[in-house]
Amino acid sequence: MNQAYGIQEQEYTKRINLSIWRRLCKYLFVYKRNLWGVIIANICIAIGEVAFPLLTRYAIDTFVQQNSIDGLGFFALGAVCVAAFQAIVTYIFVRNAGRLEVLVSRDIRRKAFSRLQELSFPITTELRWAISWLDSPATSTACPKPWPGAWWISSGPWR
Fold first, then answer.
1. Angle formed by the axes of helices 32-59 and 72-118, nearest 10°
2. What is the model's pTM?
3. Using CA atoms, how far apart are residues 100 and 108, in angstroms rounded to an integer?
4. Is the dihedral of CA 83, 84, 85, 90 positive or negative?
5. What CA–CA distance (Å, rounded) separates 112 from 106?
6. Residues 113-150 pLDDT 10s
7. Lowest-pLDDT range, 42-46, 92-96, 142-146?
8. What is the pLDDT of residue 112?
9. Which helix (H) or strand (E) holds 47?
10. Contact partners, residue 142, CB within 8 Å, separation at least 6
11. 85, exposed or middle or buried, with CB in 10 Å at 0-12, 13-18, 19+?
12. How far apart are the first and last CA of the chain?
């Protein structure tokens, strides 16, 4: 049994089709506010990811090598602020990216549905399947499910 277990990856030798990306970007640029939110949040996330190793280096150089805890409180406060900043920016990124995903896929489905209605051939079973797929939310599996305790928070005794 000389069989390798796991996922076998395929090597793709085809070039990227830029015309498809140009057509997709037409839908994306309609929502410039969300797109800029994703771009800026992504840059801020990268800055935050670079800050953590720098904080670690500073902690080792200052506190471990000098065997001193002078200024440790300010350092801890700074590290917590960087982590909070990272969490907030990640939330903004996920929210804007999710919104873009839903809005762009909705626009693509609407355009495909209207194009399908303009065709002048009889409706077959395959075409009915395509229409029903276009009419249903295609991103329902990609969207996160609501938190199970959300109903309790929204309908608790404090309401």
1. 150
2. 0.66
3. 12
4. positive
5. 10
6. 788 777 766 666 666 666 666 656 554 544 454 445 54
7. 142-146
8. 81
9. helix 32-59
10. 101
11. middle
12. 63
Higher pLDDT, 158 or 97: 97
Tokens 């959300």 — which residue?
150
Cβ-based neighbours of 27, under 8 Å, separated by 6 or more: 104, 107, 108
Among the listed residues 6, 35, 8, the one whose alpha carbon sits nearest the alpha carbon of residue 98: 35
20-41 pLDDT per residue, tens: 888 888 999 999 999 999 999 9
Helices then strands, each counted (H, E), the chain: 5, 0
Q: Which two tokens stand for residue 10?
A: 């395929």
